[in-house]
Structures are given as C-alpha cells and as structure tokens.
Design a protein that fits this description.
The strands form five sheets. Strands 4-12-11-10-9-5-8 form a seven-stranded mixed sheet, with helices on both faces. Strands 13-14-17-16 form a four-stranded antiparallel sheet. It has a two-stranded parallel sheet with strand order 1-15. The chain folds into three domains: 4-68, no CATH class; 76-85 and 348-458, Aspartate Aminotransferase, domain 1 (Alpha-Beta Complex); 94-342, Type I PLP-dependent aspartate aminotransferase-like (Major domain) (Aspartate Aminotransferase, domain 2), CATH 3.40.640.10. By secondary structure, the chain is of the alpha/beta class. The protein has 19 helices and 17 strands. Helix 11 (270-276) links the parallel strand 10 (247-252) and strand 11 (280-284). It has helices at residues 10-15, 17-26, 28-43, 53-68, 94-105, 124-134, 145-157, 178-184, 200-206, 233-243, 270-276, 301-309, 311-316, 320-332, 339-342, 344-349, 353-371, 412-424, 449-454, and strands at 76-77, 112-113, 118-119, 138-142, 161-165, 171-172, 176-177, 188-192, 211-217, 247-252, 280-284, 295-299, 375-384, 396-405, 430-431, 433-435, 438-442. Helix 2 (17-26) packs parallel to helix 4 and helix 6 (124-134) runs parallel beside helix 14. 42% of the residues are buried. The structure holds pyridoxal-5'-phosphate. Pyridoxal-5'-phosphate (PLP) binds next to helix 7 and strand 10.
Length: 464
C-alpha cells in the first residue's frame, strides 16, 4: 500500500492547472469523482507507483475520456450477415431516418386526428399500409415480433391451449423460445406430432374445447430435412375454420413482397399467409422488411380489435420515433420496383457480386498496406447470409478480402485473434469473421469505402 501522506489530496489535484481544463470539459462533479477514484486506485497499489501530480492528472484524463466515450456507436458490418441482430439488423433508408429525426425533435401528430381536431390512434399511421400490402382486414404494431407473439398468445390463449407442432418449437437468438413465451403469455402448450413429422390428424385430435389457438411458427434459423411432413397452411386454416379456432402464423422475418422478383430465395410473405386463411400473422419490422425494430400483427378485424384492447398492448406499444420511421419505410413499398434502390437491406441483398468484387479489388491495396508485414491480403469469393432467421440454409455469392497472418500454422489461431482485434480497435470498428484460417472481410454491406479507407492508417497490430 502506498502511504496516504505520499499522495496529494483530492483538493490538491483539483487545484492543478491541468485539472482545470478537465473541469471545463467534463464538469466539476465528474472530474472530482475521477480524481477520487484514481487516488483510491493508487493508494491500493505498491509504494513504487505514481505520486507525481502530472501523472495523476494524466490518469484522471484517461479515465474521464473513457467514461465519455459512448458504448453504442457505428461499426462496419463486414461479417457477411446482412441482417445481423447483434449489430442492430436493418439499416434504414434516408427518408425514414429523416422522419425519425423530425419526430424525435419535437411534437408530432402521434395520436391526433387533425381533421376532427380530436384524439386519434397511433396505429393509424401504419395500419392502412399494412392492410394494403397484406390483404388483411386490420393491423396493429408493437415493440418487436417477440412482443407481437406474446400479445397475440396472451389475448387469444390465456389459460387455454396453444396447439403447435413439435417441429416448430423454435428458439431464436437472444432467448426467444416459443415454449417460454407461451408460458409467460399464460397459455398452455399442446404439442402435436413428432420432431420431424406432423399430420392433419394430429391437429384434429388436439383441437378441443380448451384450445385457444393453433400456432404455426416459421422455422427461422434451422431446417428439418429427410423424412418430414407438415400440414400446409391452407389445409390447417380450413381445419381451424371448421373447428372454430383461430390459426395464428408467426412468420419471424416474413416479407411484404416476394423476394424472387429479385432472384433471391423465396421468404414467406404475410399476404400469402392471409390468403391461405391465417387469422393473425406476426412478423418483424427490422428483418427483411428493412425498417426499425417493430412487431407487426395483421389479420381479422375482430381479433385485431381484441389484441388492441389487451392492457398489455399499452405496455408493448411503439414510440413516436419508431412509428415515424416504420411509416416512412412502408410508404416505399407502394413502389416495389424501386425498392432495391431505396431500401438499404434490399440494396445489400441484391448487390451484384461483380460490384462487390470490384470493391474488393479497390480495397486490397489500402488494407494490405494497413496490416503491413503481419498478414497477406487477397481478394476472395465468399458467401453472405441474410441473417435474422431468414433463409437459414441458403447463402448469397459475395466477395471480400481474406487477411491471412504470416505465421506458422500452430500459432495461426492467436494471430487471427490479434488481427481481428486490431480491426475492432479502429475508430469505427471493423467487424469481419474468421473462416478457413483467414480473417475475412465480406464487402457486400460496405457502403462508404472512403470512410473505411480513411481510418485504416490508424491501425496498430499489437506486438506479440
Ligand atoms: C425473429 C423471430 C422472432 C422474434 O422477432 P423479434 O423481432 O426479434 O422480436 C419470433 N419468431 C420467429 C419465428 C422469428 O424468426
């Protein structure tokens, strides 16, 4: 322990001219707090450490700088996963960002009907568009799709049974597990079929007076192949109608338009489920739809009305900023032909591989010079994935840079870690993925090459 007398007092450090500059930048109370913490740390250290005032002020500055740095900030997503949940999923179009900025900065017509001069309903900003694009009678929105599922189950199946196939008891990343959500919603899971097969008769036998709803959940992030069978949505819808129970479909990502028109793999659309006879359909706002985080519920008017009356709806509702952004994104869907140019998610997914490869050729020299002698950098073909549980088994051909450490094989793992840490430590962190002995930068989602290159000079690869 450093003796108390060897260290200056808090007041003495605060009186130092170097600290005055910190007080004007960070405020008195934060600076005083940092001085106390630094002195306490030093006191707990061996005698030999810092007691010079200049050194102490330096430590205080570092501490304050670190605390002032926001922990949430932009990154370059070069992971190859377009809708990356850990990186915030969809990048929003400029019109949505502008609508959100405007909504955030002042009062808006959130629940105000200007024609009547009376209180309005916040759902109206998006419900009409959702009805138009899905063919549903009515629509409502909540915080995310997990909330949508929770709210629907709680509304239709409180103390009742939720009939669902064993092959659809999905777990999505971030601890969304269908059985847990069902339990928290107050429903009782009634599993039918086996892991790989479910038949119409399984549902027939399970549906009874205790049934609240029949649930069909999209197998978002896995596939069951081999000896399998399931009941088509249309057939299940007919059975449910005959037995007088609602069919609810959780699409997960879902889509508002068929992606095959852009030669992408087909993802089920909300309109298809509605046309097949689903009573309610839930899907995400920030997956393939390309908007802000939201949960969309469309379907039969009487059921939507019950959902909206559920007191939980108030706890799960959207704020004005998200609603403004979502409405702006939905308006773009009026002109589907131009969506790839206007909606970043679709632009990224449809980006021609030749275009990505050209970017890789352009960026190879600056990246190679940034890593210096530590690694070789080459242009490679790679595969991107959509992410967020859309099309888990299909990939999109892409291109990128493979950064391979110059080191003998047995040390390669540690070297790759060092390389990826150096990219993460850049002012705008660059996130790639480690694959086949390389740190791989998939360039599909790189939209600002100048910004990417401008910071490469700051790269320092830590010494071994
Ligand atoms: C993604 C997903 C959810 C959760 O949606 P969030 O928008 O992340 O809350 C629920 N169900 C399925 C099938 C999903 O794919």
């Amino acid at each position: 322990m450093t003796s108390r007398s060897a260290l200056p007092s808090v007041d003495r450090v605060l009186r130092d001219p170097g600290t005055g500059d910190l007080v004007s930048r960070f405020g008195r109370s934060a600076t005083t707090g940092a001085v106390r913490e630094v002195l306490a740390d030093l006191r707990a250290m061996p005698v030999s450490t810092e007691v010079e005032i200049a050194g102490i002020v330096g430590r205080v500055r570092t501490r304050l700088d670190q605390a002032a740095r926001p922990s949430i900030g932009p990154v370059f997503n070069l992971t190859g996963t377009v809708l990356h949940t850990n990186l915030g999923r969809a990048s929003l179009p400029a019109v949505a960002v502008e609508a959100m900025r405007e909504a955030a900065s002042g009062p808006v017509t959130l629940e105000m009907d200007l024609d009547r001069g009376a209180r309005g309903d916040r759902d109206t900003h998006v419900a009409g568009l959702l009805q138009q694009f899905t063919g549903a009678e009515a629509a409502t929105v909540v915080n995310n799709n997990a909330a949508a599922v929770l709210l629907v189950l709680n509304t239709l199946a409180l103390r009742r049974e939720v009939v669902v196939a064993r092959s659809e008891l999905v777990e999505i990343g971030g601890s969304f597990r269908m059985p847990d959500i069902c339990a928290r919603a107050g429903g009782r899971l009634r599993e039918v079929g086996t892991t790989n097969r479910v038949h119409r008769r399984d549902y027939e036998e399970a549906i009874g007076p205790k049934t609240g709803l029949v649930l069909k959940a999209h197998r978002s992030n896995f596939a069951i192949v081999g000896f399998t069978s399931e009941v088509a949505e249309r057939d299940l819808a007919r059975l449910c109608r005959d037995r007088g129970v609602p069919l609810v479909v959780d699409l997960g990502s879902g889509a508002l338009v068929g992606l095959e028109r852009w030669s992408l793999p087909h993802e089920p659309t909300a309109a298809e489920s509605i046309a097949a006879g689903a009573c309610l359909v839930t899907f995400s706002g920030d997956k393939l739809l390309g908007g802000p985080q939201a949960g969309l519920i469309v379907g039969r008017a009487d059921l939507i009305e019950r959902v909206r009356r559920n007191p939980l709806k108030r706890a799960l509702r959207l704020d004005k900023v998200t609603l403004a952004g979502l409405a702006a994104v939905l308006r773009l869907y009026r002109d589907p032909d131009r969506l790839p140019d206007r909606l970043p998610t679709l632009g990224q997914l449809t980006r021609p591989v030749a275009d990505i490869r050209a970017a890789a050729e352009r960026l190879q020299p600056p990246v190679a010079s940034a890593v210096g002698g530590a690694a070789t950098v080459s242009v490679v073909a790679c595969e991107s994935q959509i992410g967020s549980g859309a099309q888990p088994t299909s990939t999109l051909p892409s291109a990128g840079l493979a950064v391979v450490p110059v080191v003998e094989k047995r040390r390669a793992g540690a070297e790759l870690e060092r390389l990826s840490a150096a990219f993460r430590a850049l002012p705008i962190p660059v996130l790639g993925r480690i694959q086949d002995g390389a740190f791989l930068l998939d360039l599909r989602c790189l939209d600002d090459e100048d910004r990417f290159v401008a910071q490469l000079g700051e790269m320092t690869i830590r010494e071994r």
